[in-house]
C-alpha cells in the first residue's frame, strides 16, 4: 500500500503565530517535566549562565509527528530479530572479521588498536562467553521513480552505544500528549482514524535486554553484590537519554544497582579479581569500602578515538574486555558494526550464487531475502575490480554527487558527502582509500515539519531516519542465542533537508515520532 497522498497533503498544518507560541509553551515545559532534555552546550556551562552545570534544556524536537509510511515501519520492525541474529553470528565469526579488518588495520590505527585488544584477550583466553547486543538498525524511506510501494533502505547498523532509546520513548509520549491536549485546540490536526501514533517501548525494551543479561550472569555464578556499569563520557550532554534507561532498571520490582563510570576512570574505579574467572570489581568513589561485581558493562563511550587519548585508555578497554563481565558490546561485536562489514554484506561477489548472508543465517531461521531488500549499493574503495570502478565514480565530479563516503567511525560527523568526495580522496594517500566505503545516497520523498531547537522554530523540508532497536544475548561457546527481541522500540530522527548529517547529539537533527500513513 502506497502512502495516501491525501493523508500527507497539507501537513503539518499552517499555524498562526499565537498557535505556535502556545505549542512552544507546552512543549518546553512538558519536555523538562518528562526528561525530554539535554544538558546545555559546554560553552554555556563554562559561562556565568551555568557555572555549576545544573541546567537542562529541551531536546530539539519536531512540533508534529512526521508522516511515515506504515508499510515501511512494519517492514523495519518485522526484520529486526533477523538482523539481531545476523549480527550475533558475525560477532562470533572471527575468521570473517579478520578478513574484513586486516586491510583496514594497516591504515586505521583505531581499528588496529581494537583488534589488538581482542588478540590479547584471546591469547589469555576469554573467560566470558556471553555477549550482549543493544542494536539499532537505521533506515530511510526509498521511493522508486515509478511511485511504487516505498521501501526502507538501511543507512547503517549500530552495535555500540546505540543511543536515543530513552529520549525517543519520551518523544512518542510528547506527540501523543499534544495530539490529545494541544492539536485539537489548534483545530488543524486531522481528527480522524488516520492519526496513528504507534506505541514506542524503546526504553523498556533496551532495559529488558540489559536485565536479561544481568539475570543470566547472576544465575550462572551467584554473587554477593552484582551491578550493571554504564561506561560513559564525561561530561555528557545526552545524559537524560541514559538516565531513562537507568531508572527503568532501578524502578523495576527487582531493582538492579546501576553505576555510571566515566571511561577515563575505569582504571581508578574498577579492578580485576585475582581469580581465574577475572570478575570485574567496582568500588563507588563515594563509598570505596563497598565492592560490587559488574555483571554487565554497557558502553555509552569508547566507540571513537576521542575516548582513547593515550595508552592508559587502551589499558582500560583491555581491563573490561578480559574481565568476566558481559560486555555490551564485546570488541568483536563492536567491529561487526563497522561500515566495512555492511559493505561486504551488501556487495554480492560475482559468480557466487548465494549471498554472504547464508554464511551467518540458515534460511529456515531467518528471512534472508527480506534483509537483502533493505540493502542499498555500497562499494569498497580497495584494489578489487569493484573497488577500482568505485574509485572512478568517487572521483568523477558528476557521479560523486550520488554518494556518501564513510570511514570506519561512529557517532556522527565523520562522513564526506557528494562533491566534497573527490578533493577529500585526493588529499589522502591512495593507500588509505581502502578504509572507506562508498555508499549511494538514499533520497527519501519530501516531508515537511517544524523543528523546535534552542527555543526557535525552523520550518521546511525535512528528512527522516527511522531506527529500530533490538536486543540479543548469545553464548559464543555453545553458539546459542539465549535472548532475541526486536521491534518494540524505535527512534525517528529528523533533520532539515539541507543538512547532510542527522545526529541529534551532533547538533543537526531533532527527535521526532512516526505518524503512520
Ligand atoms: P554514524 O555511525 O556516524 O551515525 P551514519 O552512517 O549513520 O554514520 O551516517 C551519519 C548520517 O549521515 C546519517 O544519520 C544520515 O543522516 C546520513 N547518511 C549516511 N548514509 C546515508 C545514505 N546512504 N543516504 C543518505 N544519508 C546518509
Ligand atoms: Mg553509527
Ligand atoms: Mg548513524
Automatic annotation (TrEMBL):
Output the Gene Ontology terms for molecular function. ATP binding; glutathione binding; glutathione synthase activity; magnesium ion binding
Top-level EC class as recorded in UniProt: ligase
Query: Which SUPFAM superfamilies does this chain map to?
Result: Glutathione synthetase ATP-binding domain-like, PreATP-grasp domain
- Looking at the Swiss-Prot or TrEMBL record, what is one Pfam family this protein matches? GSH_synthase
Q: Kindly list the positions annotated as binding ATP.
A: 156, 339, 406-415, 417, 439-442, 465, 495, 501
| Entry annotated with the keyword Magnesium | yes
Q: In which pathway does it act?
A: Sulfur metabolism; glutathione biosynthesis; glutathione from L-cysteine and L-glutamate: step 2/2
Give the Enzyme Commission number. Answer: 6.3.2.3
Keyword set includes Ligase: yes
Q: Which InterPro entries match?
A: Glutathione_synthase (IPR005615), Glutathione_synthase_a-hlx (IPR014042), Glutathione_synthase_C_euk (IPR014709), Glutathione_synthase_N_euk (IPR014049), GSH-S_sub-bd_sf (IPR037013), GSH_synth_subst-bd (IPR004887), PreATP-grasp_dom_sf (IPR016185)
Positions annotated to bind Mg(2+): 156, 158, 410
Binding locations of substrate:
136, 160-163, 236-238, 242, 300-303, 493, 504-505
Reaction(s) catalysed (UniProt annotation) = gamma-L-glutamyl-L-cysteine + glycine + ATP = glutathione + ADP + phosphate + H(+)
Q: Which family does it belong to?
A: Belongs to the eukaryotic GSH synthase family.
- UniProt subunit comment: Homodimer.
Please state what the protein is called: Glutathione synthetase
Q: Which organism is it from?
A: Hyphodiscus hymeniophilus
